[in-house]
Write a structure and sequence with these properties.
- The chain has 223 residues and is α+β, with helices and mostly antiparallel strands.
- Helix content is 38%, strand content 20%.
- The chain contains three helices and ten strands, in the order E-E-E-H-H-E-E-E-E-E-E-H-E.
- Strand 4 and strand 5 form a beta hairpin.
Length: 223
């Protein structure tokens, strides 16, 4: 038998994906919380699938990890130098700090404290970046079509959407979020840097598929 007019069937979930202008019969059921099935799992006619992509956040976490290692090495070298000066002072006959050794000890001590504080801050930042990267799902994040927006946590027609905007994450270090406010349920929320499309592309796509009724408010990125 041919396809039922006005819909296609998701290969992995068996759930219908609506054609433009046709409301879906039911939400995406039986889909893992991380996201919708990956490329090739769903055929979306005249719609734009947007996938999760953790490469940007993972790259930031990897760069910060290298900074943490360099900071730790620098701190280790400073502590070795400070230890050498102290050993020299207390191993000498007088056991007292001279002008040069006193200055060296003071400089190395200050440097060690600064390096230690910086290392602690970088470790916290690295953990936040890694957590943000790990929180990005896999596969299909959302589908923008002429009917509306669909994702693993629900779906809304354009008539039920109040607005689409980029917002700052509540948690420090989590970057920006793509937020879809809607009147028929809780807002959809996605990690902006964890999506395969750039903010400008998202804005253009939403304007096109919503027939100009909506766009992505990017004003927070200008702050």
């Amino acid at each position: 038998m041919g396809e039922t007019p006005g819909r296609v069937v998701a290969e992995q979930t068996g759930n219908p994906v609506p054609m433009p202008g046709q409301a879906p019969d039911a939400p995406f059921a039986g889909i893992v919380p991380a996201g919708l099935p990956g490329p090739g799992a769903i055929s979306v006619p005249e719609g734009m699938p947007i996938y999760f992509d953790r490469q940007v956040l993972a790259g930031r976490a990897a760069s910060e990890r290298r900074r943490v290692i360099m900071n730790a090495v620098s701190l280790g070298i400073t502590l070795v130098g400070l230890g050498a000066v102290l050993i020299y002072v207390f191993a000498s006959r007088e056991g007292q700090f001279g002008n040069i050794t006193g200055l060296a000890t003071w400089l190395l001590s200050v440097s060690a404290v600064i390096s230690l504080v910086t290392l602690g801050a970088r470790l916290v930042w690295f953990r936040r970046l890694r957590a943000a990267a790990d929180a990005v799902g896999e596969g299909l994040a959302l589908v923008v079509s002429r009917w509306g927006i669909q994702c693993a946590s629900g779906q809304s027609a354009w008539e039920s959407i109040d607005g689409v905007a980029v917002a700052k994450a509540r948690r420090w270090g989590s970057g920006y979020r793509l937020r879809v406010d809607r009147s028929d349920g809780p807002a959809f929320d996605f990690p902006l840097e964890g999506l395969s499309s750039l903010p400008g592309t998202l804005d253009s796509s939403i304007r096109a598929y919503s027939s100009g009724r909506y766009g992505v408010d990017l004003s927070v990125l200008d702050d």
